Amino acid sequence: MSPKKKVLICHILAGTLFGYLLLHPLTMAIYSMEVDSGPYETMAVLSKAIYHRILLAFTPQMNMMSSIFTLIGGLGGLGSGLYRNFILRQDNLPRLLDDKEGERKEVLLLIRSDESELLEFKSSLRWDTKKGCTNKELEKVILKTIAGFMNAHGGTLIIGVDDHGAVIGLKQDYQTLKRKNRDGFEQQLIKIISANIGTDFCPHTHVKFHEIDGKDVCQCMIDSVEQPAYVRDGNDFHYFVRTGNATRELNTKEAVDYIFKKQNSSGVCLDPKCGMR
């Protein structure tokens, strides 16, 4: 349960208790003071009448009235809880806006940088700007880049920006998806990683979206992984690694040597037989 819901429930419960235990008896006491008091009554008699009225508030014959005051208290608690959540949201808004602005500035700095061993730009996920149509072969290019970062030192892939740092946006990519928005884009990206690299590797790609010049771009922050990340192509598996500002496929010997070297440098055994006796 979210913190906001917990706060709301606590306020409603407090309101209902207030209505039943305090508001109703207090109303009965005030009523007694107005109805039962007379010019010749002593304070002792009046106090006894008030006490009697307060006790009467908790008897079965007053269940209907008690329910009404409980409802009034609950509604008051609901209003109080909503107001508190609103105030907290207003208090947190400047911090959230500052965080978003900080992230946006960080992405702008990356876009203004050159591609490197830790940074790559791609114009789209699956929309071919030259042919003007969907081209799923472009997804394989994205997968190669992601796997290359995973097999090397990690890095950042920004989709929606061309090689020269010009913001293209994701509008055309959105139109190729069932859900034509950020959620649909992220789902498609995670889907192809799961199907072609492996489900275990999906948590190592962290996705964020930013609006730059009125256009969406997708920032993929990719972790370096210990296990080899292969890209499936039919029945074949390919091993890519990021070197310099490019992603290169290694042949079998190069891949074995690279993985062995990475295994030794990390101190982690990548052989499935490790630890088996």
Structure description:
This protein has 277 residues and is of the alpha+beta class. It folds into two domains: 3-88, no CATH class; 119-266, Schlafen, AAA domain (Methyltransferase, Cobalt-precorrin-4 Transmethylase, Domain 2), CATH 3.30.950.30. It is built from seven helices and nine strands, in the order αααβββαβααβββββα. The protein has helices spanning 3-35, 43-56, 63-111, 137-151, 171-175, 182-196, 252-266, and strands at 119-122, 127-128, 133-134, 155-159, 205-212, 215-222, 230-233, 236-243, 246-250. The strands form three sheets. The chain has a four-stranded mixed sheet, with helices on both faces. A three-stranded antiparallel sheet has the order 7-8-9. A two-stranded antiparallel ribbon has the order 2-3. A hairpin with a 2-residue loop joins β5 (205-212) and β6. The longest helix is centred in the first third of the chain and has 49 residues, at 63-111. It is elongated and about 100 Å long. Mean pLDDT is 83; it is low at 270-277.
